[in-house]
Amino acid sequence: MMRSLVPLLLATSVALSAGIKIDTLPVGKNPESVTRGWSGDLFVTIMGERGNHPDAATDGAIHRVDAKGNVSQFYIGGLQEPKGIVFTGETLVTADKTHVWRIDLNGNRTLLAGPDQFPIPPVYLNDVALDPNQRGVFVTEMNNSGQMFGPDGFRAIDDPAVLEQEPGGRVYHIAWDGTVTLAMGDSAQMFHPNGTFVEPDGRILVASFFLGHVVAAYPGEKPRMIATGHRSADGVETDDHGNLFITEVFTGKIWQYPPHGHEPILLHTAQSAADHYLDRERRLLIVPDSKAGELVFISL
């Protein structure tokens, strides 16, 4: 089991006073999301160069990490800017800006949904979550993320340059035949949605990157805020005991909300905490640190 090997293989191991142990493993430039796949190996989306860099449109990749901590640099390459990733048991599924791909064991990719299949052509697809009914996946459309930034960086939460515009953020459901339908959309509570997770009963959780809210709703319902104060929120997920985990990109903070209204716990502060994976079997929270280029393993 990977958990038993982690202290021996990872580059850094830090024991915290609260009994939480932190391990890290370098995986590549700008890791964004991670999941377990075939043979229990980890599969990590690597955004690579970003913005106006000449390689930004082609150097995105998925790296594979085996149980010994060995990293295969290009399990699949040639992606634009892959974000969320999940494993169906048969294939990986990842969102690559305006496309959603299925990837098989040999690294071959097939298109699940492209821009023409969406009700409104997507601008910036982000996270991916499995449909608990095994009918497909959910994906967030962040829309024009550039609206969030001004000459001085991340705009203030009450900046009218952002808030006076249409929200435009959506969550889509993509069936395995490529049919795309709107699951949650255009809510002022989830301006520029990033991370998403779907609970076993079908409730959708979404993190608003700009506002810092985490909202929840069943498909077709109005989203309800269940947490706030997490600007640049990325990963969001609940476990089987009702704990809520949230990561923040710009602050690097990794939070746990215990059930029954208890105060949130700051588990760790990385350089940049991206879209995490909750390994229930091994009781690990695995968080890509984009700035550091590594995975952070938090024992729970």
What does this structure look like?
- By secondary structure, the protein is mainly β.
- It has 2 helices and 27 strands.
- The strands form 7 sheets. A 5-stranded antiparallel beta sheet has the order 1-2-27-26-25, covered by helices on one side. A 4-stranded antiparallel beta sheet has the order 3-4-5-6, with no helix packed on it. A 4-stranded antiparallel beta sheet has the order 7-8-9-10, with no helix packed on it.
- β3 and β4 form a beta hairpin.
- Major beta-sheet overview: 5 strands, antiparallel
**Highest-level CATH class:** Mainly Beta
CATH topology: Neuraminidase
- Low-pLDDT segments, ≥5 res: 1-17
State the strand order across the main sheet: 1-2-27-26-25
Task: Give the CATH H-level superfamily.
Answer: TolB, C-terminal domain
Instruction: Please tell me the overall pLDDT.
Output: 88
Q: Percentage of helical residues?
A: under 10%
CATH architecture: 6 Propeller
The H/E string reads HEEEEEEEEEEEEEEHEEEEEEEEEEEEE
List keywords for this structure.
300 residues, mainly beta, Neuraminidase, 5-stranded antiparallel β-sheet, 4-stranded antiparallel β-sheet, 46% strand, globular, disordered N terminus
Summed up:
With 300 residues, the chain is mostly beta strands. Helix content is 4%, strand content 46%. The chain has one domain: Neuraminidase.
Present the secondary structure layout.
Blueprint: H1 2-9, E1 12-15, E2 21-26, E3 31-36, E4 42-46, E5 60-65, E6 71-79, E7 85-87, E8 92-96, E9 99-103, E10 109-113, E11 125-130, E12 136-141, E13 149-150, E14 153-154, H2 160-163, E15 170-175, E16 180-185, E17 193-198, E18 204-208, E19 214-217, E20 224-227, E21 233-238, E22 244-248, E23 253-257, E24 265-269, E25 277-279, E26 284-289, E27 294-299
Antiparallel strand pairs: 1-2, 2-27, 3-4, 4-5, 5-6, 7-8, 8-9, 9-10, 11-12, 12-15, 13-14, 15-16, 17-18, 18-19, 19-20, 21-22, 22-23, 23-24, 25-26, 26-27
